[in-house]
Amino acid sequence: MQNKPSDAAAGGTAMQEPAADRSKSRQMKLGLMLQQSGHHIACWLHPEAWVDTELDFSKFIRIAKLAEQGLFDFVFEADSLSGEKFTPETLPRTSIGVRIEPMTLLTALAACTEQIGLVCTATTTYDQPYLVARRFASLDHVSGGRAGWNVVTSAHAPEARNFGGGVHPAKETRYRRAREFVQVVNGLWDSFDAGALTFDREKAQYYDPAKLHVLNHDGEFFRVRGPLMVPKSPQGRPIVVQAGASDDGRQLAAETAEVVFTAQQTLEEAQVFYGDVKRRAGEAGRDPDTILIMPGFGILVRETQEEAEEVFQQLQDLINPDVGVSLLSRYLATDMSIYDIDGPVPELPSGGDVFSRAGLLLAAARRDGLTIRQLYQKIAGGRGHFQLIGSTTHVADVMESWFHGGAADGFNVIPPIFPTGVEQIVQHLVPELQRRGLFRTAYEGRTLRQKLGLPTPLSVRG
Hints:
Blueprint: H1 8-11, E1 29-33, H2 57-69, E2 74-77, H3 102-110, E3 117-123, H4 129-143, E4 147-152, H5 171-189, E5 197-200, E6 205-207, E7 217-218, E8 223-224, E9 239-242, H6 247-256, E10 259-262, H7 267-283, E11 292-302, H8 305-317, H9 321-332, H10 356-368, H11 372-379, E12 386-391, H12 392-404, E13 410-413, H13 420-435, H14 448-452
Parallel strand pairs: 1-2, 1-13, 2-3, 3-4, 4-9, 9-10, 10-11, 11-12, 11-13
Antiparallel strand pairs: 5-6, 7-8
Helix pairs in contact: 3-4, 4-5, 5-6, 6-7, 9-11, 12-13
């Protein structure tokens, strides 16, 4: 348990309007990662957790409204296009991997909420720019300017088997495609200028044709004419989020993203990542203050440290060893079942398509002398993210140290258990952060972009 304190052509965000007034005291941003029963791999077995015979949408509504009550910036729904995260023997023993399609979920939640941002994943490897641009622009209109797109390149090779059965592209190819993909999506989002819809009955003119632009993109991976027949986004463009921690991922984030998710196990590692991405953003011609870095925190908070640790240990004791080993095998891209579960984590090859998170986990295993069992227990609550277990004061202390220590602009919160984990955060942790002046006491503005304090990007046409 860990509880220590581009240019416009690439991303269309190099030239931007001024950011929100920075003279105000800096405050952290908070996102909440959705999951039906919680994020611990054994949470569904715990008596506090929601369990249903079917996925119950009303529970997602309750969680989204709780997050909105707690003034979170956004809720976030991750995604994967393959169920092959576990073996046939272990998959029936975990709730991970069973989920509602995220765009459908967030569109429905848009009608049930008023303020909170709505962010979800769409892959650049097994999707098309026109379709992604259309879906997120539509969500932005449906929600009144609260949409965000989490850009991923599909690190898991089994996804290829659901799209023609072809060979999963190499990492370098996936990132080249992703860079061009984001460029095309930004261009399509700029198809209409603001105020293009005139509704001029005298001229019988629905929109001003001078304010509609054809993209005519012809690149390495895509040929897209456009235009996108969705009006200008209420927030200029939906927010672009990115989560890669590898060198390729950091560079893509620095060039294209406005919010960056990351998984770091120590304050020192997080400071290095933070400084590196901000530096790269500056080198790409962007204002580093217009890219927000939000590490994932698996937070379990209770009134006392002892109570929090007791609940967490209950969850840990519910882990089926086969499920734990299978989860670890996925993150390390290696079958760990052939090794002694109580023996040391073996030396594994690096490079190639080994996930960036694998390097972080292996480094933690070496640093702390962990066995295979101890390593899967370490990632069980937040799937590789930092696990923060404790009293309200302790959790707030650690968050404050990361926030003021050059490691984070905010946090993507990953509660191990729903709904009680979210309730405790909203009822106890948020007020403590507010008391310290670290978090808002009311929403600023209507759109997600306004809440995050991010500028509206100028058109890719300048």
